[in-house]
């Protein structure tokens, strides 16, 4: 703070009145020269008090000027610091906003993930339903051929490259539920030759035509007359030596004999072609690998479920391999979403093992859930395919008195 000039003049006068020992006498303490000497000093100070004040003012000003840059520098730093803090606060606010937005997005992603999972489950159910419906439609409207047979005009055919007598060939076809092939038109004959050539390179195969009952009166093995269509080789049938009562088809003969019929001794050995009527399932059943299956959605005890299957002409299902087991789970899900279904497997304590309802042993394949079977005091002897989360689609033993839905299997009929 700057002092007024009067202050500095008063200070100078006071200083002038202070005695200086170096100038005082031992007797009275007077300055040299006495009173006149004191007056001279005072006059000197008065004359130069303006200069003294100015000098003191200059010294104080220099001090103030020296502090000024420091004050200015501090103000700049503080200003910059405030600016930085303000900017950081803005950035933090933006960061908080971003974090909030990310949280909302995360919640949205969780909801989306939940929705996607639900849609996937719905899609799986629809796929299972579609597959089962397609199989059911096939079982109802499209007849199915036995394994190894090929359908042609609603009849199933199979070529055998194992030569047999005519009677032996008939028996082999009968074991498949059919007869020797009966080509009643040219198109079927062409198909049979093509089928035969796919399995054999020999010349002849038996067809289901003969005149064993009445010589010269050929008939098909189902007892029907030959009819208007035939494909005899020129000069045939001739009944050479009176022993040619059965008919072969030339498949690889010379040009003039190719794709023609010839009567032959029934005790000669030739390849043959069988035909069977296509298999079909009863109403409401679905065919899988030549067996018809049906889901029953009314829960019953094990024994009542087995009885219902017998009344339907079959048994409780016996999934003896992984693919059949998976098919049954798919079939069940297409019509029912309960807690599981009985299968035809149960425990026989006297034997100490599980058996199928047809009396056969369980075999190598099984699909038990974790910790199963556990019997639990001997009360759990019958088997279900469970649908609970921790047992999904796996086998579990249950008390036979429990109530579950069930699936029956039956052999297909012939159209």
Automatic annotation (TrEMBL):
<dbReference type="InterPro" id="IPR016187">
    <property type="entry name" value="CTDL_fold"/>
</dbReference>
<dbReference type="GO" id="GO:0030246">
    <property type="term" value="F:carbohydrate binding"/>
</dbReference>
<protein>
    <submittedName>
        <fullName>C-type mannose receptor 2-like</fullName>
    </submittedName>
</protein>
<dbReference type="Pfam" id="PF00059">
    <property type="entry name" value="Lectin_C"/>
</dbReference>
<dbReference type="InterPro" id="IPR016186">
    <property type="entry name" value="C-type_lectin-like/link_sf"/>
</dbReference>
<keyword id="KW-0812">Transmembrane</keyword>
<feature type="domain" description="C-type lectin">
    <location>
        <begin position="288"/>
        <end position="409"/>
    </location>
</feature>
<keyword id="KW-0175">Coiled coil</keyword>
<keyword id="KW-1133">Transmembrane helix</keyword>
<keyword id="KW-1015">Disulfide bond</keyword>
<feature type="coiled-coil region">
    <location>
        <begin position="109"/>
        <end position="136"/>
    </location>
</feature>
<feature type="transmembrane region" description="Helical">
    <location>
        <begin position="51"/>
        <end position="72"/>
    </location>
</feature>
<dbReference type="InterPro" id="IPR018378">
    <property type="entry name" value="C-type_lectin_CS"/>
</dbReference>
<dbReference type="InterPro" id="IPR001304">
    <property type="entry name" value="C-type_lectin-like"/>
</dbReference>
<feature type="domain" description="C-type lectin">
    <location>
        <begin position="152"/>
        <end position="275"/>
    </location>
</feature>
<dbReference type="InterPro" id="IPR051663">
    <property type="entry name" value="CLec_Tetranectin-domain"/>
</dbReference>
<keyword id="KW-0472">Membrane</keyword>
<keyword id="KW-0430">Lectin</keyword>
């Amino acid at each position: 703070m700057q002092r007024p000039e009067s202050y500095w003049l008063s200070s100078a006068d006071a200083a002038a009145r202070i005695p200086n020992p170096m100038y005082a006498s031992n007797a009275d303490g007077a300055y040299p020269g006495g009173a006149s000497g004191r007056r001279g000093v005072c006059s000197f100070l008065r004359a130069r008090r303006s200069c003294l004040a100015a000098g003191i003012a200059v010294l104080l000003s220099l001090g103030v000027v020296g502090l000024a840059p420091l004050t200015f520098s501090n103000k700049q730093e503080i200003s910059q610091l405030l600016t930085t803090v303000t900017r950081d606060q803005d950035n933090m606010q933006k960061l908080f906003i971003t974090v909030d937005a990310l949280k909302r997005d995360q919640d949205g992603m969780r909801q989306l993930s939940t929705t996607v999972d639900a849609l996937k489950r719905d899609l799986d159910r629809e796929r299972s339903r579609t597959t089962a419906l397609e199989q059911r439609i096939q079982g109802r409207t499209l007849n199915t051929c036995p394994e190894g047979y090929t359908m042609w005009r609603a009849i199933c055919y199979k070529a055998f490259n194992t030569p047999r007598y005519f009677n032996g060939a008939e028996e082999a076809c009968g074991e498949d539920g059919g007869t020797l092939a009966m080509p009643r038109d040219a198109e079927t004959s062409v198909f049979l030759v093509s089928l035969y050539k796919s399995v054999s390179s020999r010349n002849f195969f038996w067809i289901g035509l003969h005149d064993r009952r009445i010589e010269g009166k050929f008939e098909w093995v189902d007892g029907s007359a030959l009819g208007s269509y035939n494909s005899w080789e020129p000069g045939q049938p001739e009944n050479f030596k009176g022993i040619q009562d059965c008919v072969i088809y030339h498949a690889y003969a010379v040009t003039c004999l190719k794709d023609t019929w010839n009567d032959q001794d029934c005790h000669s050995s030739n390849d043959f072609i069988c035909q069977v009527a296509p298999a079909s399932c009863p109403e409401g059943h679905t065919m899988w690998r030549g067996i018809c299956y049906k889901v029953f959605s009314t829960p019953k005890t094990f024994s009542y479920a087995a009885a219902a299957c017998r009344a339907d002409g079959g048994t409780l299902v016996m999934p003896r391999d992984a693919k059949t087991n998976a098919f049954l789970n798919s079939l069940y899900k297409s019509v029912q979403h309960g807690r599981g279904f009985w299968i035809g497997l149960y425990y026989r304590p006297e034997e100490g093992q599980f058996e199928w309802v047809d009396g056969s042993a369980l075999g190598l394949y099984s699909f038990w859930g974790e910790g199963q079977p556990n019997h639990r005091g001997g009360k759990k002897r019958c088997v279900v395919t469970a649908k609970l989360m921790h047992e999904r689609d796996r086998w579990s033993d249950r008390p036979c008195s429990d109530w579950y839905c069930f699936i029956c299997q039956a052999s297909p009929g012939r159209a």
